[in-house]
Design goal:
The chain is an alpha+beta fold. The protein folds into 6 domains: 96 residues, Immunoglobulin-like; 91 residues, Fusion Protein Consisting Of Minor Coat Protein, Glycine Rich Linker, Tola, And A His Tag, Chain: A, Domain 2 (2-Layer Sandwich), CATH 3.30.1150; 103 residues, no CATH class; 79 residues, Sandwich (Immunoglobulin-like); 86 residues, no CATH class; 104 residues. It has 13 helices and 30 strands.
Length: 656
């Protein structure tokens, strides 16, 4: 599957705003707002001339300003009193009302019990258009079952169905199916017939005297037939099409009707009304009634609605509405309205100028009091990096401003805190390391050799640096998202913004140099919500490691190595020992110990996981049993006739 984004915009301009007052504005107050202007497809308009006006106050002077490198302007506005802003509902494109296709829910050859094969299914699918026309008789969709007999030539000879108009319609379509040739076959078929989505008629009958369900059934059958009089999408839903008086006489299946059609308010033309009237004329009952009956009927129209027909309603909110227009070199780009909520003035605000600084540069921190601020302003402010104080500065008398000089060896995020307010400054590296890769051609043919020019700089000066290049086909992105050029910033920049300014200018963008304009930088630092408090950017961690030796694996491996050497020693003894000399438990213990000694002397001792030699007294029973002389000696005449329990001997004589 795939997807694509299509931007539809009524205006030629898209604007977003960030303010210092809870993302809103306050009336009767000098508000600082940062507005980003862009095209509807989110391309910024750097250097454009921006005019901000208040459409609710024609006496207010327009604000003229110029966008920075990121298309952001900083304006001071007084929006006046809050107003009720109406946000129009988006237009709705009504989907076409298209009925579903008929579906075969059962198709079985009865004699063998098998499902139909592909050729038979293809033949049945050919009846779908004819069955779809039966949807007028299937309000809400209904399942219809028929039995079909097919001759050897593939023609349908018999069709059995229920006694109702819908089943008769489906049966007529089934008679036209041409099956593949073969033996005589009998099929059980069930079609799910969807509603045709043409208007339907609902009949309400009321008996004044006598009557039973047969009368209501006759009216319901006529209501289904009347659907063929009205095209899809015609009529007024809920309107009364006609009223009727009816009578049933004993011994007659005819329903005598006096129809009173409605000429207005139904949305039907004269031809459609006459067709509907004929459908409800000449009604007949399924069986002969045994008593007279008298009553009335009302026929109402129901028009199916397409999906998504519900119209969205416009929204109203209390806030401020500004009109923003942009132009370049006197040529208008477009204009749009900017709606902002009612903000709140905090007790104290801090503003840093500039927000993007370099080592050795001066930064001014200005304090702004709100109506709820009480007490005196601080006389000194501290410039901090995390929990480390870098500098102190006095607050100017009457200016509410303190000026700092950024230390030469400082970079990253600095901040000034006082009275619950914070100002953030990002100090760019003096000579940031940068890499640029440029191919010698814009595109290549398969088999051609590409030459890449790699340039590394520190600031504006070229510098030697190690660069790793990895070539990845973009098709790999179909399996997993590929890393972007700024993905490394996720782990190197720990400051966070919630939410980022204009949805894009976060601390990572500041650190990677992606925020170029001063206004954009001020908006970005306004949204920084968390700064790392450890100055070095490192976090202390405590770790511990514990290993559990695999004593069983070491024991078994070294045991079988010693056992193999023991077998060689015993074979030599069997071949060289004097006749009549037998293997006693004492001799076997000595041979095992000599084997361990030889292995240790060769530098490959047979030990357990804790370095202890594998003496017989420490072996588990299953391994000790494999050193039993009767298991090791191959010649029976080398074994004594008097059998001593090997396990018991080791336990008592060798010891544990």
């Amino acid at each position: 599957m795939g997807a694509a984004e299509l931007v539809l915009s009524k205006d030629d301009l898209s604007v977003q705003a960030v303010t210092e007052l809870g993302a809103g504005l306050v009336g009767g107050f000098n508000n600082r707002a940062y507005i980003r202007v862009a095209t509807p497809d989110d391309k910024p308009l750097p250097g454009s001339e921006v005019v901000v006006t208040n459409p609710w106050d024609p006496r207010a002077e327009p604000v003229h300003t110029k966008a920075d490198e990121d298309g952001v302007v900083a304006v001071q506005v007084d929006p006046g009193d809050p107003v009720t802003v109406v946000i129009p509902a988006p237009p709705v494109r009504v989907r076409p009302l298209v009925p579903a296709d008929p579906q075969i829910t059962l198709a079985q050859e009865v004699l063998t019990g098998r499902s139909v094969d592909l050729a038979e299914r293809r033949a049945l699918d050919g009846a779908s258009p004819a069955i779809a026309r039966c949807g007028d008789l299937a309000p809400g969709g209904q399942a219809v079952h028929v039995g079909v007999r097919v001759a050897p030539g593939g023609t349908v000879t018999d069709v059995l169905h229920d006694d109702d108009p819908l089943a008769a319609c489906v049966a007529a379509a089934a008679r036209g199916v041409r099956f593949p040739t073969g033996p005589v076959r009998t099929y059980a078929l069930t079609w799910q017939v969807p509603d045709s989505l043409v208007p339907s008629f609902h009949v309400g009958t009321r008996a004044a005297y006598g009557g039973d369900g047969a009368v209501a059934h006759a009216w319901a059958v006529a209501a289904r037939l009347a659907r063929r009089c009205v095209p899809r999408g015609t009529g007024v839903s809920g309107s009364t099409v006609l009223a009727a008086h009816w009578r049933v006489r004993t011994g007659s299946r005819a329903v005598e009707t006096t129809l009173q059609p409605r000429a207005t308010g139904t949305g039907l033309d004269a031809v459609e009304r006459r067709c509907v009237q004929r459908a409800f004329t000449g009604l007949r009952l399924d069986h002969t009634p045994k008593a007279d009956a008298l009553g009335t009927a009302t026929v109402t129209l129901s028009v199916p609605q397409p999906p998504g027909r519900a119209q969205p309603q416009p929204q109203t909110k209390t806030g401020y509405e500004l009109k923003v227009a942009a132009s370049t070199d006197g040529a208008a780009i477009g204009e749009t309205n900017l709606v902002l909520p009612v903000g709140e003035i905090p007790p104290l605000r801090l503003r840093a100028t500039p927000s993007l600084a370099r080592p050795g540069e001066k930064v001014a921190i200005e304090m702004f009091r709100g109506p709820s601020y009480t007490g005196d302003l601080p006389k000194k402010l501290s410039l901090m990096r995390g929990t480390i104080e870098l500098a102190k500065a006095k607050v100017g008398v009457g200016t509410r401003t303190a000026t700092f000089t950024v230390p030469d060896d400082t970079e990253g995020f600095l901040h000034v805190d006082t009275g619950g307010a914070r100002a953030v400054i990002y100090v760019r590296p003096l000579d940031p390391l940068a890499v640029a890769v440029k191919p010698d051609h814009a595109s290549y043919r398969p088999g051609q050799t590409a030459t890449l020019t790699v340039t590394t700089t520190a600031g504006d000066e070229p510098v030697k640096a190690g660069v790793g290049l990895v070539g990845v086909d973009s098709a790999l992105a179909q399996l997993a998202p590929l890393l972007g050029p700024d993905d490394y910033g996720r782990v190197t920049v720990r400051a966070t913004a919630d939410p980022p300014a204009f949805g894009r200018f976060d601390p990572r963008a500041l650190a990677l140099g992606q925020v170029r304009g001063e206004n954009a930088a001020k908006a970005a630092v306004l949204r920084i919500s968390q700064l790392p408090m450890d100055a070095a950017g490192d976090q202390r961690i405590t770790t511990s490691v514990a290993t559990v030796p695999d004593d069983e694996e070491v024991l078994i491996t070294d045991f079988y190595r010693a056992l193999e050497a023991l077998h060689g020693r015993v074979r030599t003894w069997e071949n060289q020992a004097p006749e009549g000399e037998v293997m006693t438990p004492e001799r076997m213990v000595k041979m095992w110990n000599d084997t361990l000694h030889d292995l240790s002397k060769a530098g490959k001792p047979a030990v357990d996981a804790y370095g202890r030699p594998l003496t017989l007294d420490m072996l588990p029973d299953d391994l000790l049993a494999q050193v039993d002389p009767r298991q090791v000696v191959t010649t029976g005449t080398r074994l004594p006739e008097d059998v001593v329990s090997w396990q018991h001997y080791v336990e008592t004589e060798v010891g544990r």
